[in-house]
Structures are given as C-alpha cells and as structure tokens.
Amino acid sequence: MVSERAASGEDSLIARYFKPLATDAGAFGLDDDAAALQVRSGEEIVVTTDAIVEGVHFLKDDPPDTVARKALRVNLSDLAAKGAATAGFVMTLALRGVDDSWLAAFARALGEDARAFGCPLLGGDTVSTPGPLTVSITAFGRVPAGKMVHRSGARPGDRVLVTGTIGDAALGLEILKGGRIGHAFVDDHPGRDALVARYRVPEPRNALALVVRDYASAAIDISDGLAGDLTKLCAASGVSALIDLPSVPTSAPAAKLLSQGATTIETLASGGDDYEILCTVAEARSEALAAAAQRAGVALTSIGTVIAGFQAPRFLDGEGSEIVLKRLSYSHF
Amino acid sequence: MVSERAASGEDSLIARYFKPLATDAGAFGLDDDAAALQVRSGEEIVVTTDAIVEGVHFLKDDPPDTVARKALRVNLSDLAAKGAATAGFVMTLALRGVDDSWLAAFARALGEDARAFGCPLLGGDTVSTPGPLTVSITAFGRVPAGKMVHRSGARPGDRVLVTGTIGDAALGLEILKGGRIGHAFVDDHPGRDALVARYRVPEPRNALALVVRDYASAAIDISDGLAGDLTKLCAASGVSALIDLPSVPTSAPAAKLLSQGATTIETLASGGDDYEILCTVAEARSEALAAAAQRAGVALTSIGTVIAGFQAPRFLDGEGSEIVLKRLSYSHF
Question: Each residue of B87-136: pLDDT tens digit?
Fold first, then answer.
C-alpha cells in the first residue's frame, strides 16, 4: 500500500536482504503478492504467530542476529510443542528506517536459522513505523491430519516432563537489566554469557517435535514461565498436577545462583522466555518416550504427575510441603 | 512470552474480544498455541501477509471498525488477485494499552468481515508496544495445486483490465489530511464521504477471485497505485503495456474533481490504496471473462493492451499522446 511497497523503497530492501532467503519454490522469489504452501495428501498445516517488540520482548541493544533468531525461534518453539515438522514462515518487519548494516546482519542470521531448522522464508511485508522495531512472524508446520498435539489431552496419572533447563532466560534478562545477580558472575563470564544467550536466543526443541507428536498426551511451549504455562495446560485438560520442584532441571549457572541463595526455584519456575517444551505422557508410554528423546538428543526430565481435580497445579519442595508461588507469570497489560 | 501472554492480561483480552470470532474448528477456540488449517486433497494454500500501522497506513482518528476492516481487507485483496478462495487468517495486534470500547468495536467489525468474506480468525497474538497501534495479518486462501495466478503470466496481445474505480482512496486520504480538494465537496457530503470511505475501508474483489483464477493470465492487487503496480506486473512478466488513460474507470466524485480541474487522471493513476484487481487476459478469452465478471457482479474495465518490450508501461491521453507520470507510486523509505 502507499508509503511502503513502492519500487524505490521496500522492493529494493527486500531484493537486497531477503530474496536470498526465499529458497523455497513456493516463495516465488518474493516477486509475487503471495506464497504457495504445497501440502501433501493427508497432511494439515499447523499455523502459529508470535511477534517480538523492541523494548518489550527484546532489548534495544540486543544484536540484530539475536533479534532475528529470537523472532523465528519463538514461533518454531510453538511448532515443536504441537508436534509439527517445520514448513516455512512469513514475516512482517516494522522498521523506523533502513539501517543497512543492521539489516544485513539480521537477514544473514535469519537465513542461517531458516536453513538450520528447515523452515524457509515464504513471504513478508516491510512497513515503516515511528515506533519500536517489531518483528511479527507466522510460521507453518506439517502434521498428519488430526495429529496436532493439544494442550487439552493430559489425563490423571500422566507424567509431566520438560525439555532442557528452566529459568535461565529470566536470569539472563535480570543480568541484562543490571540486576544484583550479575555480581555472582564477576569471575564467571561464561556463566553470565550462557544465561544472557538463553534470553536472547532461545533453543527451540524442534528435534523433539515428531517424538512429541507420537508420544505426548498434551504439550505446550513454555514462554510465560513453567508454572503459568502448566496452569494453562491443566486448565485446558481439566486436570491438576503435583510438581516436585527439586526435580525441575536447572543449568549449571542457575544451580550456582540457587546454591548461593541469589535466586530461588520459585523464581525460575515462574520466569519466562524458556521456550522449552512442557508435555505429559501416559505412564505406560513414558519409558518409550524417554528412549525416543534420548535418540533425538534432547534432554527430557520428569518433574511431576497429573492428578484429577480442577485446582491450580501444586508445587512441592523436597519434603513434600507445598510452596505457593507468588506469581505464576508476568503480564504487561 | 513474558510480558504479554499471561493469564491475567492477554488471555482475558483474547477471551473477551476475539474468542467469539474463532468459529472455525481449526482455531480450537484460541485455546491452544497454534491453529490447524485443514487442506483438501489436490489443494495448496496461498499465504499473504500485510500490516497496517497507525499514522502510516491509517490515521489516528480513523474509527476502530474501519481499522479492523482495512487490516483484514488489504490481505483479502491479495487473495482475490491470486485467484484464491478465502480460508482464514491469523492476526498480531500490537497495542499501547487496553481500551475496551475501542477493542469491542474493532473485534465486532473484524468478526462481521470475517463472516462476510468467509475468512475465519484462526489464531493470533496480542503484544504490548509503546509505539503506534499495528495490526499485522497473515491470510490464507485455497487454490487447486499450481493454480495461483501470478504477476508473471502476461503476454503481448493480452488485454489489461481493472476492477472498480481508480484513485478514490488517494483522494479520500487527501481530504482527510485537509487538502484543497475537500473544498469541492462543501455542498456534497455524500461525495466526500464516499471518497473517505474508499480510503478507510477498501472493497476487496473476492467475488471475482475464482473468475481471475480461471481466466487471467496475470494479476496483482493495486495497493501502491495503478501505474506502479502495472509496472511491477509488466516487469515480472517481461512485457510492456499501452494504457489508454481516458479508459481508466473513475467514480462520480473523482470524475467531478477531474471535470473541475481539481485533480488529474495522472494523480488518480499513481495514487495508492485502491485495492482493486489489475489483471491481464488473452484476447480470445476476454469476452468470456467479461461475462463471468458480470455474473460475479464486479465491474471490470479494459484499459489497455500488453505489448512486447522491456520498457515501463506507457500512458496515452485521448489523442494517443504519451503522458509521462511524474511518479509511479509513493515510497516511505
């Protein structure tokens, strides 16, 4: 539309930076008004959309390559949790202006991730904004028809599992904001950097997607914090859960902060931006799931059990006493 | 992710305003991380994405219902031009805060358009932004595999046609911005309102989508102005065109301004936001196309001819003299 798509502006910007990413035949080299997503017989398309806003979901000083990766990966994480194989994505980039070195680094990293995750750029829109840089991505995945994994399938007796480690990104954000926990890492730059990297560049568990599809009774990606997202999964399934907090997997730097009393497991369990998969599995299938996860190379840890009931999930300490989390997750609105 | 998707904020906002719109089974009531788009055998999915930004693509004072309709319709227009039947859409809404009366009116109009155009809401994301309100929509259409209409299929000898009337939205924007042409309508409020409405709420030609699919050799939706978008279509097809400017269809209020010398046909042909379809058709099929368009109830006007060559399209006045357009379309970057 006027003011954003004319030959001299957006078209050349797209040609320069994003056309090289449009390797899929259905992208038509970004030369058309739309893309075509080919679908095999018996498949359906899983669609997810997530935007990141400068100053809200990433920081003004975050490097362009991390912004690109985060924008794509928060969407890839949803596809993984739904058991979908990656198929492609479209992107809307709202920019204040054209900064060539920023765009070049952004596009290069986006292209690397698109290749690494098998999720090609199919199309997009660049618009001018007087506001913060915003990257809005809609990503597509493939599943056999009816096989998308839902939040709503958890049943009493199922095990509750999470991939990777929990709470690192929330700690990384606290460090970037100059929080006190940064002091614990004055002599441990790798520990500090690992937590910051977990905030800036999530590691979506797409390697586990087909395992989730084949074994999980329910799944959700953890974006708002383990506690908050588990609460949503339980609500959607009409169940509750008992979580053994000491079982919640933590990274080495997070464990160091816990041992120093600089953070608490409650903080980690209610922090956000993990982009790990939280899933449930029938007890009878949990061994087979563990073996499949190991083959996929993704750490998967059992942290509790689904129980009957409609109350919020409960979190127990090492002695089996309930710990009441002060907040489940954070909301900006 | 943190700061935007927690139960107390975004979830309740979505439940209140957007869940009633999620009537398609594949939307799962907006209660999951993703939607599922069912695909029939032999179909492929056409994907298009367009965002509108307050102060750039719509004005701060535009009513919420017109913002909703414009956000969806600029995407529907792309689907129509590609010959695709509407299938659904996802939306990312970047808001500064929650204004209930604004959101209620926005959601109501969005739901009305979704029903009217058979394009249900499948999913979305609401994010907080300190910047301008931005609505980013990705819309899906269906075509038999390989049948999407491209920009690149125009051949010398084809006729060039446009739907509806050209230039109204650009005039409407000029009026809203307090331009001098507003004076022509001091005693003609219906004329003024008609032009403003064309800017605020495009009329996408989805009623013609299957006709375009079955007859057009190439098509594009006119978002940046007839001249600019025709130039893109010709470039993609490796052809040129001769356009008879007096044949370009104009509305009654636009014709009134032309007759008063208050605007020029060049201005109309290079204005933006028309959201009409520009298409080409083989001469031998043009009568059948005209008949099909009439059955579909969409005005379709022949305005010129595709010719061989690589130069930009040429615009001729009533005497056959070339008129050089000062600008083809407008770019913000």
Answer: 999 999 999 988 999 999 999 999 999 999 999 999 988 999 999 999 99
Sheet holding B218-222, edge to edge: B218-222, B276-281, B159-163, B300-307, B240-244, B314-316, B322-323
Contact flag B129-A130 (C-beta cutoff 8 Å): no
A6, B228 contact by CB (below 8 A): yes
Mean pLDDT of A312-333: 79
Which H or E element spans position A171? Answer: helix A168-176
Cβ-Cβ contacts under 8 Å between A and B: the total is 310
Predicted ipTM? 0.90
Mean pLDDT value across chain B: 92
A-proximal residues of B, 286-305, CB under 8 Å = none
Q: Rounded to 5 degrees, what are φ and ψ at A325?
A: -75, 135
Nearest to A274 by CA among A256, A297, A251, A252: A251
pLDDT digits (tens, 9 = 90+) for A267-283: 999 998 999 999 999 99
Per-residue pLDDT of A236-246, as tens digits, reads 999 999 999 99
Domains of chain A: 7-144 (3.30.1330.10), 151-323 (3.90.650.10)
State whether residue B13 sits within 8 Å of chain A by CB: yes
Taking CA A228 as the corner, what is the angle to CA B24 and CA A54, rounded to the nearest 5 degrees? 80
Report which residue type is found at B62.
Answer: D
C-beta separation of A227 from A269 below 8 A = yes
Whether the CB-CB separation of B75 and B47 falls below 8 Å is answered with no
pTM of structure: 0.92
d(CA A165, nearest CA chain B) in Å: 16
Are the C-beta atoms of B214 and B76 separated by less than 8 Å? Answer: no
* Per-position DSSP letters for B122-185, written without gaps between them: EEEEEEE-SS--EEEEEEEEEEETT-PPPSTT--TT-EEEEES-SSHHHHHHHHHTT-GGGGGG
| Residues on chain B touching A136 (C-beta within 8 angstroms) | 51, 92, 94, 125, 136
Reduced to 3 states (helix: H, G, I; strand: E, B; else coil), residue B97 is: coil
What is the C-alpha to C-alpha distance for residues B183 and B173, in angstroms, rounded to an integer? 14
What is the enclosing helix (H) or strand (E) of B230?
helix B226-237
Residues 120-139 of B with CB under 8 A from A: 122-132, 134, 136, 138
- The stretches of A57-139 forming alpha helices (DSSP H) are 64-81, 100-116
**Residue in this structure with the two tokens 């910051």, named with its chain if needed:** A196
